[in-house]
Every structure is written in structure tokens, then in C-alpha cells.
Amino acid sequence: MRQAELQGQPTVTSHEAARLALGRVLVTGGASGLGAAVADAVAQAGGTPIVLDLDAPAGGIDHEQLDLADARAAEAAVGRAIERHDGLDAVVTAAGIDACGRLEDVPAETWERVVAVNLVGTAAIVRAALPALERADNGRVVTVASTLGLRALSDASAYCASKFGVVGLSRALAVELAGRVGVTLLVPGGMRTHFFDGRDPQYQPPPDAPLLAPQEVADAVLFALTRPRGQELRELVVCSSGETSWP
Hints:
Structural class: alpha/beta
Largest sheet: 7 strands, parallel
Number of domains: 1
CATH superfamily: NAD(P)-binding Rossmann-like Domain
Number of helices: 7
Shape: globular
Helix content: 25-40%
CATH class: Alpha Beta
CATH architecture: 3-Layer(aba) Sandwich
CATH topology: Rossmann fold
Distance between the termini: 46 Å
Number of strands: 7
């Protein structure tokens, strides 16, 4: 019997201790969709979410409003967040946009913006956060790719290029940062969010599409963030059992 049990005191498992130490978590795209679900999950678990997004999040969460396509502005925003909170414990790069259509039909500026937000923005955020994450007790990064970062689809060249890039970036970072900062690549399937709003009907999922609630994927993010120091959850696919883009 453990000493705490002998003394009649409640014990704390290593997982519970990790959740208690969740700390300060920067979430890109945290005003809606998966990012908002992650920010809520962090707050409910006793952590402090900090949101970077074009829009302000609900609930009075600390945030910076900016365009993640501007990598230098993104890096500066991370620096301000670190200064306000005297450090940072984790980063979740949930921001993402899309531009459906064939390569020749999508305007160049629109195509390049997808890559700028999804890939270059992810790298900029992680780069700016690294010094603080290395100072943290259990610094962690969760990058958000997509099942379309592993499987190509027509009329999605910008999104596939950016998410394939996030997969490569994440795998390289896992090697580069081993023993310094934990890196988890999250590969979610389709979710019931506003991500598909405003698209041409041919690019919208049908009403009966097997989509997950973002809160279900956020639970997986929280699991990755709360691994004990020295334990890595390298890659995590989370999708409906009926997901059409996996495997």
C-alpha cells in the first residue's frame, strides 16, 4: 500500500498529475472549429488557453487577432503571449483553410494563401514558441494535419500540398526536438465544423457524411498534451469509422 493510502490521503496518478500541470497552451485557430474545442478542453482541464486567430474567441479567453498568413506577425504575437504569461507549455496548431478547385482554376494568390496559413504559419508559430517550450517542464507541440496530408484528392492541391507539408515538418521536428520538446502529429478526418461553409455544393460533404464532433478530436489532443515527460505520442489518426479519406 502506498504511503498516501496509509495516511488516508487521495493519490494522484501520473496521468492526473500531467493534466493538473497542463499549463499555458497556445492554440491557433482557436476561435472556431477544432481550435475552439481544444481551447475549451484545455480550460476545462485546468489549463490556460491562449488563442491566435483572425477572430476573437468566445468566453473571454486571452487572444491575439492576426492573419496567420503573415508569418512575422504570427511570430510577434507568440512573443507577446509568452511575455504576458511568463512562458508557454504547449502549442496546438489547429488553424487551417482550404481553396477547392483544380490548380488552373484557383487564383494563385488564393492557392498560396492556403500554404501560407496551413504550413508556413505552423512553422512560424512553432519556431517562435520553441525557446519557451524548451524552458517548460514538459513542453509539447501538437501539429494538426489531415487525412488529406496522407492521401491525395483531386481539386484539393493547395490543401494537400500544405497538409503533406505539415506531415513532413512534424516528422522532421520529432527527430530534431527529441528529448527537448514533445511533438505529436495529429491527423484528423472530417469534422462537423464551419470548415465546409460557403463552398460550391460539389465540395461539401453530404448530409449523411460520417463526420466527428470537434470535441471528440479535442479529447485526443488533450491526451497527447498530457503524456508524462519522456513519453511521446508521435502520430495520432482520429476519424470516424466511416471516414472516406482513410486509409
